[in-house]
Amino acid sequence: MPTPSTPSTPSTPSTPSTPSQPDRRPATRRSALKAGVGLALGAGLLGAAPAAAATRDNARPPATGNKKNARLLQRGTPLCDQPGDSASAQGLGSGDLAIPYYREHDSSWGYVFGDSWTGIQQTDEYIGSPVMLNQASFDSSGATPISFTWAQPTGGRARQLFDYQHRQNNGYGDEISRIPNDCIEFGGRTYIQYTSVATWEPPAGYDGSLMSGVAYSDDHGVTWNDYPYHWPGDTQGTNQSMYGMWSFAGIDPDGWLYIFSKRWNGTHVNTGDGGAIQLFRIQPNDFRDGNFGAQQNWAYVNNSWQWTTSAAPSAILSGNRIGEFSVKRIGNTYCMSYFDVDDYSICTRTAPRPDAAWTAPTPQIVGNNTWPASHWGKPQTPYLYGGYIHPGSASATSLTLIVSQWNGKLNEPPYWVLQYDGINP
Asked: How far is CA 176 from CA 62, 96, 164, in A?
């Protein structure tokens, strides 16, 4: 494992877009949201809005010798923001993220959305964040797209999961929205790690967060409680906290729950992000009890990497700025996916163990597939972000990714999530 001064990312990151190519810059996900929620329309979203069909037309089939199977895979299939779709039937017209997780109590699947509306194209009633839709069974082959069959708290009535008010002080300081970062269920309890956002337009060098927390549900997602401990964020005096965004890699056969975390960069504009990711682990019972101080940290101490409680976690990866990220154990392989803000792509990496060396990043889905050269021939989705690994993916060489797309404009498509199958990291 490299030392913190020599992270295992490539020494020369992919070159980001230049000002001479404005249409290749990623849109800032939160720079504009429904005026009724009180979020200001932001600047800096360059380029014309892509037509909804352009996403599907520009997608490339997966590299495989079986062309029939290649055609069956979902390659940019919208899962919401279309009239009459399965999300609308459950009361969600448009939304983003759709973080997938396995509901082990009944072998179904949950999808946790961020800011959501009852109407398509961010119209009608603002539902809030987070919001959950569910699916009875998932087709990992990619032949059948994800279809939502009920919602929380009940079928056909998607509602905000947490009990808090937007753009108010709910006892911790002013917050705009609580954005989910990941969800996991084990031992009969469901957990969502989230970031409370203080501002979507932080000044340079600040992450704009209020705090991070973990909420839990003992009725499989209907009602939620917050653990009393919160990790302070930017406006609570801890800018660039490495506990801002989490991803639950899962409970390993060794019995530990492995968790990766990083600075909050859901805004995609955090200039101080640096892409650093850290790793810690905790016994599931300690996690359930809210005994977060029992975590063990993967740290570089006395010239060696080790699990310890005497030092904070060390950064295991760094480089370009990273937005949403996801780590999941698929089979016997740990797979990582993330939105590389600077490279304007969804990248993947793999490792045999969470504390082993990770492969170099591979761009999989890109905002522009003609520049740079590493993007040539890749599926193109302008204004992309997210990129969550479905824990029910067919294999570690055939992942399903859930990718968000939004052009930053209100009442205009797209504001949705897309399903990509057959991704080989």
From this structure: 39, 16, 10
Cα–chain-centroid distance for residue 2? 26
Q: In 227-292, at which residue ranges do the beta strands (DSSP E only) sit?
A: 231-232, 245-251, 257-262, 277-282
The answer to whether the predicted template modeling score (pTM) of the entire model surpasses 0.90 is no
3-state helix, strand, coil in the chain (%, to 5): 10, 40, 55
- Six-digit token string for 46: 């360059």
> Which pair of structure tokens corresponds to residue 98?
């759709």
Q: How far, in Å, CA of 253 to CA of 298, rounded?
A: 18
Could you identify the residue written with the tokens 């009239």?
A: 83
The answer to whether the Cα torsion of 262, 264, 266, 270 is positive or negative is negative
d(CA 97, CA 179) in angstroms, rounded, equals: 9
Cross-strand pairs, 401:
389, 420
Which H/E stretch holds residue 399? Answer: strand 399-406
Distance between CA atoms of residues 354 and 336, nearest Å:
10
- Distance in angstroms (rounded) separating the CA atoms of residues 357 and 2: 8
Q: Residue 267 half-sphere exposure, CB side, CA atoms within 13 Å?
A: 28
What is the C-alpha separation between 125 and 51, in angstroms, rounded? Answer: 24
- Give SS3 for 249: strand
What is the Cα 80 distance to its own chain's centre? 17
Chunked into runs of 10 residues, the chain (425 residues) has average pLDDT values of 33 30 39 36 25 33 40 89 97 98 98 98 96 98 97 94 98 98 98 98 97 98 98 98 98 98 97 98 98 98 97 97 98 98 98 98 95 94 97 98 92 93 97
